Amino acid sequence: MITDDLTSDNGHLMIGGVDSVDLAKKYGTPLYVFDVSQIRNQIRKFKSAFEEVGLKYQVSYASKAFAVKAIYQVMKQEDVHIDVVSGGELHTALAAGFPSEKISFHGNNKTFDELVMAVQNHVGVIMLDNFHEIELLSRILNTDHEKINVMLRLTPGISAHTHKYDQTGQTDSKFGFDVESGQAKEAMKQVLDDPNMNLLGIHAHIGSQIFGTQGFVMLAKKMIAISKDLQKEFNYWPEVINLGGGFGISYNADDDPITANEFIKQIADELKQNCDDVPEIWIEPGRSIVGPAGYTLYEIGSRKDIPNLTPYVSVDGGMGDNIRPALYQAKYEAVVANKMDQSIVETAHIAGKYCESGDIMIDQQPLPKTDPGDILAVLDTGAYGYSMAMNYNRNPRPAVVFVEDGQDKLVVKRETYQDLTSLDLDY
Ligand SMILES: *Cc1c(COP(=O)(O)O)cnc(C)c1O
């Protein structure tokens, strides 16, 4: 979101104490830039909010939002847990030296091979999602003579007010064991009966880009009610209740996200009111940790003016490096990084370079007078940008740079044309 916090030096956008226009020159465009101190600060806010309310807790970064070695290393430095959802994310985290006991493995269709990989690498928790998986895991543990922590992912019947593709907690969902129909109880029975599985607790994730606290407070209440039910039936009390992620961020002025403090305080109140022995509370923020810290720098190229219509200003990237506008009608804001001190003169569509009419990065963007070669910085692109990037139209994926304390460091190289054909074979 455009705020007064955006710092500018000589009319240039500064990121983490570094001139963004220099970064564009040094590394080329499009370029993802992350302000690492913003990432650290957000993690520390979550932690201190829990410490203030005196709950036992764990913050687990949902790494699908941005999953490269360097970010896993930052998470290791910040001493948090991480979620992974695939063998590829698990491989990346392990390759980064991230401790396996702090990894939770999620997903609604983990393959046999992925489960074997998780077991052999001794991940901290496997988040069981369905009966097929309980069976697979049970077989693997039995053959490999291994034991492992598991949690049950539940669909508690709560739907968050967010985009349809971002809702996951309602009963009609592909994720988790349904509570209402008794699936959750059956799953719990199976897990408790398996001597190789240690049931750490229960999990639910109700969606993404959620703004109010209401959904989370309802969820906390529901999870306690479910726990009490299970206690009656199985004499089992969860060590951990995992409330998932989904905390919204401000992509533009209409978005009004909850602060970590507000949300955690309300949850803590709800939990304390409803039970004497509050389990350890885990949360899984993804977007809110890396989203606002990310910027994408593009070079402005062509322009199309149509009489009486909004002009199109095109950049050298688009849906290949940020699919969210095309996929979710996501809204972004941008600034012209080399003209921060110039006044706005028009509103334009910011178009990408991909051969799709839907490749519009920003529908209505106020701009100063722009020229080819200007640097456009799209804000808040840290989450689900690089991690969803692709090679449509055979465009190489951009490089990623981390900046902190006035220093910049390349953490992912730009893909080359050679990389693009490296898997292709002759015929
Ligand atoms: C995606 C996901 C998250 C993170 O969601 P954000 O909106 O990025 O905070 C957390 N938990 C689970 C299980 C997820 O699938």
Walkthrough of the structure:
It is a single chain. The chain is of the alpha/beta class and 427 residues long. The protein folds into 2 domains: 4-35 and 293-421, Lyase, Ornithine Decarboxylase, Chain A, domain 1; 54-286, TIM Barrel, CATH 3.20.20.10. It has helices at residues 20-27, 36-53, 69-77, 87-95, 112-120, 131-144, 183-193, 214-234, 260-274, 287-290, 324-328, 417-421, and strands at residues 7-9, 12-15, 18-19, 31-35, 57-62, 81-84, 103-105, 125-128, 148-155, 177-178, 197-203, 240-242, 280-283, 294-304, 312-315, 334-336, 346-351, 360-367, 375-379, 399-404, 407-412. The mean pLDDT is 95. The structure holds pyridoxal-5'-phosphate (PLP). The site of pyridoxal-5'-phosphate has 17 residues, from helix 10. Pathway: Amino-acid biosynthesis; L-lysine biosynthesis via DAP pathway; L-lysine from DL-2,6-diaminopimelate: step 1/1.
